[in-house]
Design a protein that fits this description.
The two termini are 33 Å apart. It is built from nine helices and no strands. Helix 2 packs across helix 3, helix 5 runs antiparallel to helix 6 and helix 6 packs antiparallel against helix 7. It is mainly α.
Length: 214
């Protein structure tokens, strides 16, 4: 996998490289992300953000007039850069491998995503919550992520179908079931603090049985 597997650190790297955001506002965004991840958006005040960033509360409002605008500014780098970069890395390093069996592919994917959730649980809770309720984020994210999955995942699916390892359904339908199941489990584990090590085998068995050739 990529050297950078922590989404919060990746966000901070994007902020550091940006020339469009003043230094103090970068501190505000970094502090906002930390606090939203630690205690939730609704429970975080601009006073706490300013204190964590080491700036006056007026500095927060200088660029972001509302807390919602601040949240949008925090999420923007994830939608445009961080998430697509992680998906591309996942597609290249995990999905696009010469798997010979469905079990081998699913085991690798499930194991990798569980490790990813463990490393990024707090940030993912913020991100998934907003993606679920905000159609504008979904519209921005889908065209950035979908082509990466199609380019890498579909070739693997075609190979497994040709080898008689995978049910002969359209690739977009198979991808929907795989990704949808993983996202559902991701949301469940994040919001319920479920033990992912116990969930992994169940998830693997469900996908393997559902996608096995008839």
């Amino acid at each position: 996998m990529a050297q950078e597997t922590n989404m919060q650190a990746a966000f901070e790297n994007v902020m550091a490289a940006s020339g469009n955001i003043p230094p103090k506002q970068k501190l505000v965004l970094a502090a906002s992300l930390e606090l939203f991840a630690e205690q939730g958006f609704a429970n975080t005040t601009t006073k706490e953000i300013a204190s964590r960033a080491g700036v006056a509360e007026g500095t927060v409002y200088k660029r972001y007039k509302t807390k919602d605008a601040l949240l949008a500014a925090v999420l923007a780098p994830y939608v445009t850069e961080v998430v697509p970069a992680f998906v591309q890395d996942f597609a290249k390093q995990v999905v696009n491998q010469p798997y010979m069996t469905l079990h081998e592919m699913l085991t690798t994917v499930v194991t990798d995503r569980i490790a990813f959730i463990k490393s990024n649980r707090a940030v993912l809770q913020v991100l998934i919550t907003e993606i679920l309720v905000r159609s504008d984020l979904r519209k921005q994210l889908t065209p950035r992520v979908l082509p990466l999955l199609q380019k890498n995942l579909y070739a693997v699916l075609d190979r497994l179908k040709a080898n008689g390892e995978l049910v002969d359904w359209p690739n977009d339908r198979i991808a929907q079931f795989m990704i949808g199941t993983m996202l559902t489990e991701m949301a469940r584990s994040i919001f319920t603090d479920e033990d992912l090590d116990q969930a992994g085998p169940v998830l693997l068995a469900f996908l393997e049985k559902g996608l096995a050739p008839k």
